Amino acid sequence: MGFKEVFRGLFTGKEDKNMQYARLLDGSAPIFSQFGRDIYASDVVQTAIDCIATECSKLRPKHIRTDQNGMQLNIKGSLNRLLKFAPNELMTTKDFIEKIVWLLFMNYNVFIYPKYDIITNEDGSFKRREYTGLYPLNPTQVDFLQDETGTLFVKFMFSSGQSYTLPYSDVIHLRKKFSVNEIMGGGVNGQPDNNAILKVLEINNTVLEGLEKAIKTSLSIRGILRINTMLEDNKQANERKRFEKAIKDSESGIVAMDLKGDYIDVKANPKIIDKDTMQFLQDKVLNYYGVSVPILTGDFTDEQYQAFYEKTLEPIIISLGQAFSKTLFSNRELDVGNEIVFYPQMLLFTNTKNKIAVADILGNRGALTNNELLQLFGYPPYEGGDVRQKSLNYIDVDIANKYQMKKSGMKEEVKINEQ
C-alpha cells in the first residue's frame, strides 16, 4: 500500500494556501529537514542502536483501562489487535517497534500516523474512532503550520515529491533530547546534534585507517637485493627469480649468495594503537548511547542489565506509552482510564533464576494464572489453565485484622472472668 492510500481523504500540499507557518517563541521558522546519516556509517554506532532497538522490540503494547478501583482491564477491539499482531499490513509488532526506535535515534524525532475510520451509532449521537493501521513515517522535511483558528498542523514532504498536511493532534510524535527547540527533539534546528560524537568517530576512523596501512606495510617490502654489477632489465629479473628460488629452496633459513649480490633487510616496524586506546574510543561511543560492552556481547550480569534497562530502555518505554495514549484517545477516554502500556516483562525476566523468583512470588499469591506461569517458561497453555491458585500461607489483610481483633477480645474476656 502506498502513501496515497494511507492518507486518502486528508489534506495535501496544494491545500495549504489558507495556512501560515506556526509562530515559535524564539521567532525561528518551523521548517525542519531530516538529518544526514553520517555517523551511521560507524559499525559501533549501528551496533549500539541495533542493540537498543532489538531489546525494545520485545515490548508488548496493550490497550488497557483502569477502573475506579484501580483494576486494569484488557480491552478487546481493533486497537489491541493491531498492537498485538500487526500494526499495519507491512510490519509485525516487533518490526514496528524496531523501526520506531531506529528512526528515533537517527532523526531524534519519529512520527507515526494512526489511520482510522469514524464510526457513528444509529442515532448519530456518538462518534468514535476505529483504528485500522499505525504507520511510521520517514519524511525528508517537516513544516509546522497553523490555520486562522490557531490549530497546529504538520506538513510532511517525502522523497517521492509528495506532501501531506495533517492535524498535529492526529500524529504520534516521539522526541529524543527534547531541549532547546520548541517542537522537535535534538538541537536548535530540530536535528540531532552529533558534533561531540563525530569527533570521537573521526578519531576512531583515523585509527582504523592507520591500522590498515600498518598491516599492508608489514606485508609488503621485506628487503632489498643489491646486484653488484651492471645488468640489463631482463637479466635483473632473472637474478631476482634466482634469489627467490634460493629462498624457497632453503630449509635452514640461510641463503647462499655469490659476490654479485647483497641482501639488505628492511625492518618494518609499523606503530599500532594499543588496546587500551582502542577500548577507550569504543567505550566513548557506547557510553554516548547508554550501551555497555557486556550488553553488546550478551555476557552481562543481572545488575548490568538492570542498569541498562533503567538508564537506556525505561525512558523510551515511558515515552512510547505516553505518546501513543495522548494521540490515540480523546480527553474523555483518558479521563475514564484508557491508555497504551508497553509492557516490558520479556525484558525484566532475563534468566531462569529470575523467572523462578517471579513465579514463586506472584504465582503463590494468585496474581498469575497457570497458563501465564507456563508462558513465563516458554510452555504452551492448556485448556482450563486460566485459573489462579493461591497458597494458604497467605491471607487477606482484612481477614487477618479481624482474626487478631477477635482473638484479642477473647483474651480480654478471659481476664475479666478470672477477676
Automatic annotation (TrEMBL):
Top-level division of the source organism's lineage: Bacteria
Protein name in the entry: Portal protein
